[in-house]
Amino acid sequence: MKWLIAVLIISILIVFHEFGHYIAARINGVTVEEFSLGYGPRLLSVKKGDTRFSLKLLFIGGSCRMKGMIDDPEERKEAAAAATEGSFLSVSVGRRIAIVLAGPVFNFILAFICAVIVLSVVGYDPAVVLDVPETSPAYEAGLRKGDLIESFMGQHVDIGRDLSAWFIFDELKAGEEVNLTVIREGEKQTISYIPDSERRYMLGFSYHPGEDSAVIDELSIGYPLEEKGVRAGDVITSINGVKINTSDELEAYFKENPVSEEEIAMTLTRSGHEYSIAVTPIHTDYVQTGFVYNLYRFTATPLQVLKYAFIEIRYWIGTVLKSIAAMFTGRFSVNDLSGPVGIADAVGSTYEETKSEGLLMTLMNMINLMIMLSANLGVVNLLPIPGIDGGRLLFLLLEAVRGKPVSQKIELGFQAVAALLLIILMVFVMWNDVHSLFGP
User: Fold this and answer.
1) Whole-model pTM?
2) Main-chain phi, psi angles of 228, to 5 degrees
């Protein structure tokens, strides 16, 4: 069942993306020869007007094939010379750019629609301070429970997850000053302080007390568990032979057995598969921010739903871009990438973990995943990579600037080299996805 749901969600994302190309092509007078879900041999096919609508064997993609839209530069040169009415090459470069952009834009539109649905039902997560211990430097600096955080370390904050993202892509260092702006009773206040820190042994993960299982919510990059291949969503079932059933039992275990330099044996499950690891905690500076911020959802008014739907899309687009940048800085690696198999497994795992919460919450979790995946698909398709919209868009923009197409030889060389690298990366990601299904 979970794989069927995963295929359904991925198919919706693909169809909506290709529908964007289809609508833009029709508006700009370009004939769509075939609109298909999947690749390979046709399973079902019907022709309406000039367009054949097809369902194909391999549900891993889709296409909107337009008249005269040819990837091979040599064939395209011949097609351009004989461009006829309704051909992709017969319309202006501006219209071609609009057609190519429509796919990613429709992904952002789908993400917005999904965000409106989720926010209408479960609300939004304001970055409200939930607790500030009176003994903390944050309290002494003036931070109080109920303050609404507007910025943290120079980064604008709209929702609680903005803070979570900051801690994923950045980190506080011992002795570093914390700067934040909060709104209290309608007035802005700027607060600065040096947080407490201590040397402690750490595994590098977080979880929420009160959960029915000891599920890992977040992992710290470069820490022992992440380096062992553990992923967010994995469930801890035993530590050093002691059975762990809930997150409260996990918390109780660590209170009775503080983490030290000793190696720890852990058993975890991922998508129903159990695996075991032996991990050695690292000695590091643990910086305590001195406050707890909100990640729970609060009811939203209709106007807030629209406002925070845009913020939701901004959040996910920013997260994707930061993740890509983190790969170039070395904070993330290609091992953190997921392809269709990994995405399908994540969707399926989310379904299995939330179905006990009832139909409505399961549906909201699935739609929430669609927000993330659709925004992700939109951003990735704008990257200048051959074989996707961004690669085609790159040369169309160059054509618009130069007033003439880029040399066929240069484009062919770029596509050949980049396509080879892309194929190697796709094979690696596919292997990584399959390997990850059964643990590290």
Assistant:
1) 0.78
2) -85, -5
